[in-house]
Amino acid sequence: MMNHDGIYILYPNVTTVFDNKDGSVTAYDKDRNIVTIDMDLVNEKNSELEAEIEQEKQDAETKKASGKQKLLDLGLTEEEIKAIIGV
């Protein structure tokens, strides 16, 4: 199933999206009128969103590693750090 987030972001008037058997999607507004969407733009937006999520994960890992190093610098042992932050 395709991620519909890009559609909802790019087309705020869309309230419902259906995945069709042929792989296409049909988007509707609140009045059940079909909304024409540009799938190239949607795919680009979905790629941007995926990249943002991946960056957030990487940032979290970097912060976790930095925090762990700071605890090591304070003299805590690996076991103590694991007890505190589960790393």
| Strand arrangement in the largest pleated sheet | 1-2-3
The number of domains is: 1
Supply Rg: 22 Å
DSSP, total strands:
3
Strand content: 5-15%
List keywords for this structure.
87 residues, 3-stranded antiparallel sheet, single chain, alpha+beta
Provide a descriptive summary of the structure in words.
The protein has 87 residues and is of the alpha+beta class. It has one domain (5-85). It is built from 3 helices and 3 strands, in the order H-E-E-E-H-H. It has a 3-stranded antiparallel sheet, with no helix packed on it. A hairpin with a 4-residue loop joins strand 2 and strand 3.
Topology, pairings included?
Layout (H helix, E strand, L loop, with lengths): L4 H6 L3 E6 L5 E5 L4 E2 L3 H35 L4 H8 L2
